[in-house]
C-alpha cells in the first residue's frame, strides 16, 4: 500500500469561484441554490480584474453583500456555465438509422425508441471558441472533439457515463460521435495520467470507474477500427498503472497466505469538493477538529470517484454521512472493472499484433480473477461482497472473512458482467438464486440497496448502468434461466422509463423502482433529466431483447420478481 497520500492543489480561479459560491449562498439563501453553478461560471475579464471588483463590492455592517450588488457583479463580470459549450450537430445522426432495432416490432415502442435516439442531438455539444482561446477564464476543460453531455446541471462530459452513452450511440449507428468521446478521454490521460471524473478543472483530484477500455472494445467490435485501438493502447496502459499503484493499490494476504493486490477508490484531495464546497462544509460542521474534517473531505471526494455518491454502502452508520469510509473498502465492482480492463487490453493488444502486452495482461487478469474469488466471493451466499480493511498507509493487510460487508447492494452482483464470471455455470446458478432472494428485484427494476438512507445510491432508487451490467451479465451467461430473468428485469426497466417519459416528456437520471413510472429522488441535488446513460441503456436493452408486437409497453401491476 502507498506510503504517502498525495494531494492535488487548487488553482486561484477555483479558489475565487468557491468564495463566490459561499457569498451567493450567504446573500441569496439556499432556495434553488446549486453550488456547482458558481464554479462553472466563466470570467469575462482576467482573474485579477474580476477578483478586485469582487473585493470592492459594497457590504453591510456585518460584512455580508447586498443582493443587488452581487447580482450586478455576476451579470457584469461572469458568463453563464452554458456559454462554454455550444450546440454541435452530430456528423453521423440520421432520423431513422438503417437497421435500427430490428427486433423491436411494437409500433408504439419503435416510435418511442426513435424519440430517445433523437435525444442525442439535444445532448450534443462542443467547446466554444472562447474556451479554446482563453482556457484560463473557466473551469471547463478545452476538449478538442464534440461531446455528449448527461443533461441538466451536468453540462460537461463525465467519465463512466460515457460508456453507456457510447453503447446507445452504437445502437444509433453514430460511430464517429462515439469515437470522438473516446478521443477526448484519451486526451485527458495524455494530460493528467488518468481520466478525470468530468471535464472540469476541479475534477482533477479524482477519476471515476475505469471503463475506457470497454468503450474502445465496444467500438472496435462494431467498426473494426484498428487505428483507434492502436492509438488507445498506450493510454490504456497508463490508466491501468494509475489504478494499480500508489494510493489506489492495496495488498492483502488471504487465508492461505497468498498475496493479492487489488484496487480501491482514493481521491487526491482533503478539502471540500469545489462543486459542492458549501454543502461539504455544512456536512463537516459537526466534526470537532481540522484533521477529522480533512479525513471526511477525502472520503467525500473518494466516494465521488466511485460514482456512487452517496450510499450507505460506504458508511459505517447509514444515517451519518460523516462516517463515510470509502478509502478503507475494496469494492467488488471497481475490481471487476479493472479485471474487464485487463481482459480488454489483452484482446486489443493481440488485435494489433502485440503478443507480449497481450500475454502480460492475460496473466494479470488471471491473478485478479483469483483475488476476486478469494477475497470477495462468498459461495454460501452467492454474492461478491465489498471488503473492509484497516486503513493504514504502509502495511499489508491480512484477510478476515468477517471483514466482508454482508449487506445487500446491487454492486454485489456486478462482477457477473465480466466474461470470466458469467461463463462459469455454477457461479451463474448461484448468483441467479441469490439475486432472486435478495430483495433487490422490484416492480420497476433492480434497487441499488435495501437501505432507505435518503442518499441517491440507496433504496428505492434504480440506476441505468446497474440495471444494464447485471442484465447483460445474466443474458450473456448461456443459462436459459438467467436470460429469462435478465429479460424480465429489462422489460420492467424499459416500461418504467417509457411511463415516466410519457408523463414528463423527459428521460431521467434515476427511477424509483417501487412503482412503474416513478422518478428517483434523494441525494445532494435535485433529480436531473436528459439523460445520457439512461438513453443509452434503453437503446442497448431494446437491441438485445427487442419488443414483440403483442407485448404491451404500458405499466402492468408487477410485484417484486421472484
| Order of strands, widest sheet | 3-4-5
Distance between the termini: 42 Å
Q: Which structural class do the helices and strands define?
A: mainly alpha
**Low-confidence parts, pLDDT < 50 over ≥5 residues?**
none
Helix content: 40-55%
Q: How many DSSP-defined strands? A: 16
Query: Mind summarizing the main beta sheet?
Result: 3 strands, antiparallel
Summed over residues and divided by their number, the pLDDT gives a mean of: 96
Number of helices: 19
Task: Specify Rg, calculated over alpha carbons.
Answer: 23 Å
| Coarse morphology | globular
Beta-strand share of residues: 5-15%
Overview of the molecule:
With 562 residues, this protein is mainly α. 46% of the residues lie in helices and 8% in strands. The protein has helices spanning 12-28, 35-39, 47-55, 67-77, 107-122, 129-133, 161-171, 175-192, 212-223, 226-243, 277-284, 290-306, 332-351, 355-375, 419-422, 425-437, 464-475, 480-504, 532-545, and strands at 42-43, 78-79, 85-87, 124-127, 147-148, 249-253, 259-263, 329-330, 377-378, 383-384, 387-388, 397-398, 441-442, 445-446, 461-463, 510-512. The strands form 7 sheets. The chain has a 3-stranded antiparallel β-sheet. The protein is globular and about 70 Å long. The two termini are 42 Å apart.
Amino acid at each position: 500500500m502507498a506510503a504517502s497520500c498525495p494531494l492535488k492543489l487548487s488553482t486561484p480561479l477555483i479558489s475565487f469561484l468557491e468564495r463566490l459560491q459561499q457569498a451567493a449562498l450567504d446573500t441569496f439563501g439556499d432556495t434553488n441554490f446549486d453550488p456547482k453553478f458558481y464554479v462553472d461560471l466563466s470570467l469575462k475579464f482576467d482573474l485579477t480584474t474580476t477578483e478586485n471588483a469582487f473585493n470592492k463590492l459594497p457590504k453591510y455592517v456585518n460584512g455580508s453583500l447586498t443582493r443587488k450588488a452581487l447580482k450586478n457583479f455576476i451579470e457584469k463580470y461572469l458568463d453563464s456555465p452554458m456559454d462554454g459549450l455550444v450546440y454541435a450537430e452530430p456528423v453521423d445522426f440520421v432520423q431513422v438509422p438503417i437497421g435500427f432495432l430490428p427486433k423491436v416490432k411494437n409500433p408504439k415502442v419503435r416510435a418511442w425508441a426513435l424519440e430517445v435516439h433523437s435525444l442525442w442531438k439535444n445532448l450534443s455539444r462542443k467547446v466554444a471558441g472562447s474556451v479554446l482561446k482563453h482556457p484560463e477564464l473557466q473551469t471547463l476543460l478545452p476538449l478538442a472533439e464534440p461531446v455528449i453531455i448527461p443533461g441538466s446541471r451536468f453540462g460537461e462530459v463525465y467519465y463512466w457515463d460515457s460508456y453507456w452513452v457510447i453503447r446507445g450511440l452504437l445502437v444509433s449507428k453514430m460511430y464517429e460521435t462515439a469515437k470522438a468521446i473516446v478521443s477526448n478521454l484519451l486526451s485527458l490521460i495524455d494530460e493528467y495520467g488518468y481520466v478525470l471524473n468530468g471535464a472540469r478543472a476541479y475534477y482533477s483530484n479524482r477519476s471515476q470507474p475505469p471503463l475506457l477500455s470497454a468503450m474502445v472494445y465496444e467500438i472496435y467490435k462494431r467498426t473494426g477500427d484498428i487505428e483507434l485501438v492502436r492509438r488507445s493502447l498506450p493510454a490504456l496502459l497508463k490508466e491501468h498503472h494509475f489504478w494499480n499503484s500508489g494510493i489506489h493499490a492495496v495488498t492483502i494476504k488471504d487465508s492461505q497466505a497468498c498475496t493479492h493486490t487489488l484496487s480501491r477508490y482514493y481521491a487526491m484531495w482533503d478539502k471540500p469538493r469545489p462543486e459542492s464546497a458549501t454543502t461539504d462544509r455544512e456536512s463537516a460542521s459537526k466534526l470537532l477538529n481540522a484533521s477529522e474534517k480533512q479525513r471526511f473531505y477525502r472520503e467525500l471526494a473518494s466516494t465521488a470517484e466511485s460514482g456512487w455518491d452517496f450510499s450507505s454502502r460506504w458508511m459505517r452508520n447509514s444515517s451519518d454521512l460523516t462516517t463515510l469510509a470509502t478509502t478503507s473498502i475494496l469494492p467488488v465492482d471497481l475490481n471487476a472493472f479493472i479485471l474487464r480492463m485487463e481482459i480488454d487490453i489483452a484482446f486489443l493488444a493481440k488485435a494489433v499484433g502485440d503478443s507480449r502486452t497481450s500475454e502480460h495482461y492475460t496473466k494479470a487478469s488471471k491473478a485478479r480473477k483469483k483475488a476476486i474469488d478469494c477475497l470477495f466471493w462468498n459461495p454460501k451466499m452467492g454474492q461478491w461482497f465489498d471488503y473492509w480493511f484497516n486503513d493504514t498507509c504502509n502495511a499489508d493487510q491480512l484477510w478476515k472473512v468477517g471483514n466482508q460487508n454482508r449487506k445487500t447492494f446491487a454492486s454485489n452482483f456486478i462482477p457477473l458482467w465480466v466474461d470470466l464470471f458469467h461463463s462459469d455455470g455454477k457461479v451463474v446458478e448461484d448468483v441467479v438464486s441469490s439475486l432472486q432472494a435478495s430483495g433487490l428485484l422490484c416492480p420497476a427494476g433492480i434497487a441499488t440497496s435495501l437501505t432507505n438512507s435518503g442518499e441517491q445510491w440507496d433504496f428505492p432508487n434504480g440506476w441505468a448502468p446497474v440495471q444494464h451490467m447485471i442484465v447483460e451479465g445474466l443474458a450473456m451467461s448461456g443459462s436459459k434461466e438467467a436470460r429469462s430473468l435478465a429479460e424480465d428485469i429489462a422489460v420492467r426497466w424499459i416500461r418504467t422509463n417509457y411511463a415516466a417519459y410519457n408523463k414528463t416528456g423527459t428521460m431521467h437520471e434515476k427511477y424509483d423502482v417501487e412503482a412503474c413510472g416513478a422518478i428517483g429522488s434523494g441525494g445532494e441535488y435535485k433529480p436531473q433529466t436528459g439523460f445520457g446513460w439512461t438513453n443509452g441503456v434503453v437503446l442497448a436493452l431494446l437491441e438485445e431483447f427487442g419488443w414483440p408486437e403483442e407485448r404491451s409497453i404500458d405499466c402492468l401491476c408487477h410485484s417484486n420478481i421472484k
